[in-house]
Design goal:
This protein has 92 residues and is mainly α. The protein has three helices and no strands. The longest helix is centred in the N-terminal third of the chain and has 25 residues. The N and C termini lie far apart (45 Å).
């Protein structure tokens, strides 16, 4: 994949994820949990694309790249669990 295209695609994916969370929170429509999960998936996917294209971590080993992606996925999952547990996104 072209490095420039991969960079634009990864930034677009992350932007869409962040904006979905922001819109869901401001609209208070009850979909913020879904938007947060979407943001998590798009963020990890964006990093995956950047890593595969060589834009991010070009000298890292395959194991290090895999660890970074798994670590991000776990942190997003823990964040979603904490947000759900403390009911931070419940509509009022």
């Amino acid at each position: 994949m072209n490095k420039r295209f991969a960079n634009i695609l990864s930034l677009t994916l992350f932007f869409v994820g962040v904006m979905s969370v922001a819109i869901s929170i401001t609209q208070n429509n009850g979909y913020a949990y879904h938007a947060f999960a979407l943001c998590a998936v798009l963020s990890v996917l964006a990093d995956f694309i950047s890593i595969k294209a060589g834009n991010k971590m070009p000298t890292a080993t395959a194991g290090q790249k895999r660890f970074v992606l798994l670590f991000q996925a776990v942190v997003w999952a823990v964040g979603l669990a904490l947000i759900y547990h403390f009911k931070l996104f419940h509509p009022h």
